[in-house]
Amino acid sequence: MKATLIAIVFAAGFASAVHATPAAPVDLDLGIRYYNRVLTPEGVTRESRYEEKMLRRPGHVWVERVLPAAHDEHSGNKKVALKSTQHEHKHFNPVVIPRHVMLEKNIVKVEYIDAHDKVVVAIPKAEYENVNFDGSWENSFYLLDPKLVAAIPLSKQVSNVAGARWREVEKNGVFQRVLWDEQKQIPLIIESGDRANTFYRRVDVKLQPTLSQAQPWANLKNYAQREYSDYLD
Fold first, then answer.
1. How far is residue 127's CA from residue 124's CA, in Å, rounded to a whole number?
2. FRET pair for 81, CA 20 to 30 Å: which of 92, 140, 168, 223?
3. What is the pLDDT of residue 203?
4. Residue 69, pLDDT score
5. CB 140: neighbour CB atoms within 10 A?
């Protein structure tokens, strides 16, 4: 999902001297679009696009991939727990099943909730890399650590969004830009690339006008509890 992309957009060195106190975060429902373009050494340009939905609540972040309309209601989740006719073994696909990140007593926990098969899959810290999770609550809840954003110099680029400001930095021909909503504590646009045009990444975040009343991580009493190791060969 987004963890790897977000983690490489800003280098840790830009955040060494700034410690800002962010505004109190607000509940958000978001639609997020990801775009990636890479020029290979062979001269081939590869592009990828995908979308996610995200719910942000106190102590909870829910993220699910937006699947093509050609998929039926449950096809994505069926791929998560697909039985092999030969080995009777289930395959775990973290891309097409919703991710639930929790913060409990300053401890980050992550699980995947398969509503179709009524299964909750807990992910131990040792397996975070295998599900493309960086373990950061800030990167999950804010999409970017607010302290890291505050360390980026303000840009001369004018924002057309009230309460949001552009920040920008460039080093060794690689640039990073973010349009940060100060009040809602969320990036609206994240861009990174290089002047040689060998790569470009962009994340567009759209705030939904109304908040969902549903809490998909609640009411899991009848769900089976599984460990990530249950899906390993």
1. 6
2. 140
3. 98
4. 80
5. 25
Exposed/middle/buried for 58, CB within 10 Å: 0-12, 13-18, 19+?
A: exposed
- Residues 49-71 have pLDDT tens digits of 999 999 999 999 999 999 988 65
In whole angstroms, what is the distance from residue 94 CA to residue 80 CA?
7
Q: How many CB atoms lie within 10 A of CB 146?
A: 21
Q: How far apart are CA 163 and CA 179, in angstroms?
A: 10
Distance between CA 3 and CA 132 in Å, rounded? 6
C-alpha span between 64 and 77 (Å, rounded): 11
| Proportion of the chain in helix, strand, coil states, percent, rounded to 5 | 15, 40, 45
Beta bridge partners of 171: 174
Tokens 């955040």 found at = 15
**C-beta of residue 111 within 8 angstroms of C-beta of residue 100:** yes
**140 SS3 class:** helix
The whole-angstrom separation of Cα 202 and Cα 232 is 33
Q: Which H/E stretch holds residue 50?
A: strand 45-57
Dump pLDDT digits (tens) for 180-195: 999 999 999 999 999 9
> In whole angstroms, what is the distance from residue 111 CA to residue 45 CA?
35
pLDDT tens, residue by residue, 137-185: 999 999 999 999 999 999 999 999 999 999 999 999 999 999 999 999 9
Looking at per-residue pLDDT, the higher value among 8 and 57 belongs to 57
**Residue type at 140 in one-letter notation:** S
Contact by Cβ (8 Å): 101, 110: yes
Q: What percent of the chain has pLDDT over 90?
A: 71
